[in-house]
Every structure is written in C-alpha cells, then in structure tokens.
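Budget justification note: compute hours in this period were largely spent on complex prediction jobs such as the one shown. Inputs:
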Amino acid sequence: MSVVQMHPAVRHATTTDERKTPIIALLQRVTAIDLPSRQREHGEAAAFQAVLAANAVLTGSFLDTLGAAVPPMSWTGYPPVDDAVYAACAVAYLGSADGTRGWWLHATQRHDQLGEAQHVLALIAPCTCGTYLHVEIPDEDALIVMLDELDTAPGAPVACDYRLRIRSASYADPAHDDFEPPF
Ligand SMILES: [Zn+2]
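Corresponding output:
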C-alpha cells in the first residue's frame, strides 16, 4: 500500500488583510447567510423528497391498487413541522362522498430502533363521529383486506365502531379525538 504524501498548497502572495484564518472566514460567511430562508429551502426540499418517496412507494409496493388508482401528480408535499418532530410528508386526496369530508393518503418516514428510515403509508378517513382516523397500511395485501371488509360508500365516513378504528394503531390517532380536517 502506497502512502500519498500531502503537500502543503502553494501559498499565493497575499497581503495581510486577505489572509484570513479559516475560523474568521467561516464566521464572516455565517453572518452573511439568511438562516430562515435557508431553513425554508431545506423544508421545501424535504417536502419534494417526500413526494418522490410517496410515488416510489406506490409504484414499488402498491402497484396493483394505489399505484393504479392515484395519479403520480396527486401528491402535495409538506415540510417537517415542530422542529422535525413530524417528518416531511406527502398527501394525496382520494375523494369524498359529500364533497366536504374526504379520504386522504398520507406518506411519510420514521426511523426504527436502529435508526433506519422506514416508509409509513396511512389512510386518513373521516369517522361518523366527526373525527378523522389515521390507519397505517403495512402492505398491499392488508389494504385489499381492509377495503374488502369496508361497507362504507367510496369516500364516505366510516362507522365509528368500525374495525378500521380498532385497527388504528398509529401514533397519530391514539385517542380518536382529532376533529381537525387533516389537510
Ligand atoms: Zn369515531
């Protein structure tokens, strides 16, 4: 194994003023950066990545169902909120029976115990009691079974005692008391 010798860079002839130490150059640089707009740009980039990831999940894991039913351009990306407690996400509107309270698809990521990012896909559905349910969909087979058991008209609220609610083990709906429209 050969060792590459690192030669010091050839010094340019500079005046004393131009020769800044890295820490001075760094601090001058930082004061010139507009942090809020930089954070906004990071948030927008994360939202866009969430849209791309959502599309990839649908075509990769739900090709015969959601991948065929949800057009790729249906997604809206949202930046992380609450200091990234909630990661960036993408949502797609699935429709409504009454034109007011509808169903949504919600795609985001969370990290498992090993720190690996995992895609989390969920249905958000209105409940007859006025809340919104948030039900994770682990895979396409689970989605097919769930929709097959559902005796609700497409886009209509689900009955409050329906199994969809019982299945809702999501962190987002532990209390079944979220009356806010999701998006
Ligand atoms: Zn309910």
